[in-house]
Amino acid sequence: SPLEGSQATSAGTLQGIINIPGLDYLNLTQAFADVNEKGLSDDIVLVLLGTYNCATETYPIVCPLPNAVGDFNVTVWPDVPGISIISDHPTGTLDFNGCRNIIFNGSEDGDNVFKYLLIENTNTSGFAMRFINDAVNNKVKYCRIKGVTTNPENGVVLFSTTDGPEGNDCNKISNCDIGDGMSTPINCVYGAGTNATSGQYNNYDTIVDCDIFNFYHASNNVNGGIGVNLGDGNADWYICCNHFYQTSDRTSFGSGATVNGILLSSTDINNMELCFNHIGGTTSWCGSTPWVLG
Questions:
Q1: Cα–Cα distance between 105 and 102 in angstroms, integer?
Q2: For residue 153, which phi and psi values (nearest 5 degrees)?
């Protein structure tokens, strides 16, 4: 017969530092599934070793669910330089779907210095990374994030809609490179949330200290390339101290297309803080040669 009333659930059992691949898991797909099954009893760090092979993953990789993580953190970092999580998946590579307290720190052993972890999608239809369905308090730092999406309603990094009450809130991307792969993406960051209620907006998300570059589309008649493109259902973001640039001249565009470092395109966007962003040049700090359009 079914259980009724209040029921006790088993305490989580996983914690500590676990190497991938190792005795426990071959890849992140297996590790995240085990977190969902067993839950956490403390913080867990998943260390990607030099022998890690992203071809063994099931894509999109979906991060652990909040009821398994609880108030603890799941952190992923590389043990050595040159670790890559790359897919050619039409949906995406890494999915923060309803997740909380997930941290991808791309610096070696979490030292917060170098960008040793690459997260990429080589498919023109898919995202490299998505926040969706009440993804809250997740952090991505010191990563290289690449994509080639040509869909004007997608991005290398996508802040999407929600099926819950909160929206995708308090997520932070810092000290990352967000840009092109073998070809250029139309948007580096794209945000289109749920605006049925103000509580469902994507609120208090942060993009700070990032290099955002090579957003470009040669034939779209509206969007010639946008670094951060935010539409409906977004509010209270902090977008500061970023560097927007192109590493090549951009001379061909669709009729009527515009190019934007940051575009806030909806009338329901409010309380955005944009400060100390650098737009121009062919490298950080508007450096090297000028950014050439047309």
A1: 10
A2: -110, 30
The two tokens of residue 132 are: 């969706």
pTM surpassing 0.90? Answer: yes
- SS3 state of residue 83: strand
Let me know: does 147 contact 126? Beta carbons within 8 Å. Answer: yes
Q: Estimate to the nearest angstrom the gap between the alpha carbon of 242 and the chain centroid.
A: 16
- Within 13 Å and on the Cβ side, how many CA atoms surround 249? 5
Tell me the CA end-to-end span of the chain in Å, nearest whole number. 71
Q: Strand runs (DSSP E) across 71-156, as ranges?
A: 74-78, 83-87, 92-97, 102-105, 117-121, 127-132, 139-141, 143-147
User: Considering the chain, what is the average pLDDT of its residues?
Assistant: 95
What is residue 60's three-state secondary structure? coil
Could you write out the three-class secondary structure of 235-281? ECCEEECCEEECCCCECCCCCCCEEEEEEECCCCCECCEEECCEECC
- Rounded to an integer, the average pLDDT of 34-49 is 98
The structure tokens listed for 96 are 């923060």
Which of the pair, 110 or 237, is modelled with greater confidence? 237
Q: Is the distance from CB of 76 to CB of 109 less than 8 angstroms? A: no
Q: How many CB atoms lie within 10 A of CB 79?
A: 16
